[in-house]
Amino acid sequence: MKIFKKSALSLCVQASIIASVTGFSTSALAAEETTRAKVVGVEVIEVTARKRTENVKDVPISVSALTSKKLEVLGSSGMDVRSLSAKVPSLLIESSFGRTFPRFYIRGLGNTDFDLLASQPVSLIYDDVVLENALTKGMPMFDLERVEVLRGPQGTLFGRNTTAGIIKVQSKKPTQDFDATVSASYGSYNSTDLRLAVGGGLTDTLSARVAFLQQDRDDWIDNKAPGFEQDDQLGGYGETAGRIQLLWEPSDNFSALFNYHFRDADADARVFRANIIKPGTNDLVDDFDREVVYHDAASRNNQTIEMNGSSLKLDYDFGSHTITSVTGYESAEMFSVGDIDGGYGCGITAIPGCDPANMGPGFIPFTSETGAKMPDHSQITQELRLSSNDLGKFDYQVGFFYFNEDLTINNLSFDTLGGGNQNGIAVQNMETTAWAVFASMDFELSDKLNLTAGIRYSDDERVWDGTLVQSPFGAPGFSENATVDDSQVSGDVSVNYRMTDETNLYARVAKGYRAPSIQGRSLLFSASHTTADSELVTSIETGFKSTMLENTARIDGSVFYYVVDDQQLTAVGGTGNVASLLNADKAVGYGFELDSEIWATEDLVFGASLSYNHTELQDDTISVAGCGGGCTITDPINSDGQVIIDGNSLPQSPEWIGNLSARWTKEIGNGELYIYTDWSYRSEVSFFLYESKEFMGDAITEGGLRVGYEWFAGDAEYEVAVFSRNILDEEKLTGAIDFNNLTGYTNEPRFFGVEFKANFF
């Protein structure tokens, strides 16, 4: 795999040239050294959870916000969006693809489906544009203002496929003030992370911001399969991403923001490992070595991604109202192939140098090398919104939303024992068209009490066709087609009571809607497609948001209960490398969330969050296929040999998620020494709809440590730091393959690094 170290350097040079050629205004720079006062106390965080800029304390929704400073710390080891997992209450993120195709879970609701047509109940909104396909949700996070996590159904303002909640990502926007940032880090496995951003005024009415990211890591996993030995064959990546934004403000009441962004990645796909689980337990085998695999197809375990997108946001303020238009276009191409069985097959056929009687952990009963290609993908979105501007005791928003996605997927199979020649292909085409109208109203009932009510009508249609072109087993080809459609009404009602100037109480009832789904990957293995009807979620929650002790402490809390009707589920694996959709009659969930920040002194601040989520499937008729890889199933089996899953928790749904952080600072000279540490915890999870001893992921505790020095010189701020992620080197399963031996994959290894950063104002 190629690692683009040289391109990282050229990227910084190019960005610097762009900054100088375009002539960013530096008139705001002062010649003398700037004195910056130290800020002590809880920061006022503004969010756009209701498509208005508001103090997070005034929003009657369970929401957490991660600011740019914390996001930079979490991503300093080259991590992707998965670095947010367990950093706020009730949020889990995992992936069986590696650095792309993240799967989000909020309050236990998510989708374990790994097909590129998969529908998720957590929506990701990046710079006001919804990213529907799970592949596009892997867009790197860089030069960000904040990330907001909205928990619970968001059926009024955001609509479809938000039954669990929303991840809302906001990048830094252009302003007339000049600023520039450059950071570079180096760490374990020859990892490099280079970031550059520069922004400012080009003219009195035109501002720009340019941001780039380059991340690289060398291969670090050795392949020791006899006949396929190679050191440092897997585990590396090279990734480039960029964003250019132009903000035109010809008058006080009109603005136009243009955004172009791209991603180009060349990486190894997820590394699967055969026979790494002790039978009858969920422990890793005694001789497990994270830096070793036994693969017969490791040389082809690769992944390439290209993404491009643009958006145009127009705002016109005519006094009492503002009209907003957001137009977005996204496109993506992807190819990914993996050694899914995680081993090598010298027990199946003769391989030079391999003794079938002594195959070690790589033994597999049959090979499985599959992949997916997305040669064509496009998404168009349009939102038009009319918002009132402080009319008094009544404000409202009304709007229209349109969505269209068209994509082609090639599901592929390869003959591992025949040198990796392609021996199977199924082609899927799907077009999704959706539209909605919505309205949200805010009433000030008194000086202390506010009421919000919203409603949305959504209409969805998915048109799909699929063809088995070539079967890996020689079966005849065939074609199928399907259409699923539905229309639903969703919405919410909430009240917000200002008990004191420091404490707000709220209650909320919300209904969410997840559109019907189609899954056709099974065509590759001569099985028909499956569909799932719409799922509906009704949620009730109440909570409080409070600052105290003269603004040196903040604590937010919520309790919730929800019911999912016709819960969409994906039965993955079983006895084959397939996935199928089904609906459960009902699922219920309940729990609580706490999020806090405490300034013990002006030099020491603590953060703590905790959530409890109980989920339960309730359908006494539902059953799925059990594992084909020798696991110990703990659920009852019916007369057809299927596993009864009634009463189980939802997959990848931990009961407990917690996070602790602390930052200590000490002024030294013209700067500040700091020590920062953060620790996240998630309790055990089941990887599949059925429960078994082996495929129950153990609890994980991961810690980070960062020690650095920040100082000012003139109109610049500098920082040097050393850091570590997963500092205790926890080795735990985070997912598994259940159709071929006890195959799984693990969390990221311990990482050490050093970083330099400079900010210019």
Task: Furnish the topology, listing elements before pairings.
Layout: H1 5-22, E1 46-47, E2 54-55, E3 62-67, H2 68-74, E4 91-94, E5 103-106, E6 122-126, E7 129-131, E8 144-151, E9 165-171, E10 179-187, E11 191-201, E12 206-217, E13 221-223, E14 230-234, E15 237-251, E16 254-268, E17 292-293, E18 302-317, E19 321-339, E20 369-388, E21 394-415, E22 421-444, E23 449-470, E24 478-498, E25 503-514, E26 517-519, E27 530-532, E28 535-548, E29 553-572, E30 579-601, E31 604-617, E32 623-624, E33 643-644, E34 656-668, E35 671-682, E36 685-686, E37 696-697, E38 700-713, E39 716-725, E40 733-737, E41 743-746, E42 751-760
Parallel strand pairs: 6-9, 13-17
Antiparallel strand pairs: 1-2, 3-8, 4-5, 6-7, 8-9, 10-11, 10-42, 11-12, 12-15, 13-14, 15-16, 16-18, 18-19, 19-20, 20-21, 21-22, 22-23, 23-24, 24-25, 25-28, 26-27, 28-29, 29-30, 30-31, 31-34, 32-33, 34-35, 35-38, 36-37, 38-39, 39-42, 40-41
Describe, in plain words, how this protein is organized in 3D:
InterPro entries: Beta-barrel_TonB, Beta-barrel_TonB_sf, Plug_dom, TonB-dep_rcpt-like. It is found in: Cell outer membrane. One of its GO terms (cellular component) is cell outer membrane. Belongs to the TonB-dependent receptor family. Its main location: membrane. With 761 residues, this protein is mostly beta strands. It has one domain: TonB-dependent receptor, beta-barrel domain (Maltoporin, Chain A, Beta Barrel). The protein has 2 helices and 42 strands. The strands form 9 sheets. It has a 22-stranded antiparallel β-barrel. It has a 5-stranded mixed sheet with strand order 3-8-9-6-7. It has a 3-stranded mixed sheet with strand order 14-13-17, with no helix packed on it. Strand 29 and strand 30 form a beta hairpin. The chain is globular. The two termini are 39 Å apart. The N terminus is likely disordered.
